[in-house]
Amino acid sequence: MLALLLLAILVGGSLQRVAGMGFGLVAGPFIVLLIGPIEGVMFVNLVGALMALLVLGRTIRHVNWRRYGWLVSASVAVSVPAALVIREASASALEIGVGAVVVVAMTLALVTSRLRGAERPFAPEARLPLLVTGAAAGFGSVAAGIGGPPIAVYSVLDRWDPRDFAATAQPIFLTNALAAMTAKLLVADVTFPGFAVWEWVAVGVALVASIGLGELLVGRISASATRKVLVTLAYIGGFATLGRGLLGLFA
Questions:
Q1: pTM of this prediction?
Q2: Which of 78, 85, 224, 234 has the fewest CB atoms lying closer than 10 Å?
Q3: Closest CA to 102 of 65, 153, 59, 171
Q4: Is the pLDDT of residue 216 over 70?
């Protein structure tokens, strides 16, 4: 199980360095299957926060702090309400809801993008889309350990430059993960997996190695290819979360 866990971290982390997101989307569903829906999401939150911190150290000069501020103000605001919801609702129902919304939203974003060509559906730096996106990302992070897809939807609609998106997403993911963990520890009585010390050390090594692998790839992938990876990751996360919820519901 540990070997599969480390492999998921390695793949997801390298994708996050390249595209700005990917750990929670690619590694998250597999981690939850290995560890369980409650402790697994907490583990994804914890490792996702560390992953975002490591990537941020490499991309901080490209962060759009204004967008970060609007996005996280909404995401942090919904953390405690979201934790109260997961305390009362079943994990499967939450995952089905989050997964379905992600798939539908990304599809609508792509259709809107195609219809409008180079035109944005809203003004650059408009506050309402940022607040809605932040709230959706915050709820997804608490409920299912994935906050990236709503931000990916926003990036597609906004034509956000992939390099700037990848940089700005890191402090957003870091803040969301910390807020989600704090809210669940205080409100939902959730704990971290009971790994041995050496297992946590192995997780840390895999984290650092994933960033190194991503560094080797990041300069070799074009902006267009990065955008396609971003969309693909959002769909993977949405369908994986939806499928995980359906399996849990009928198991």
A1: 0.77
A2: 224
A3: 153
A4: yes
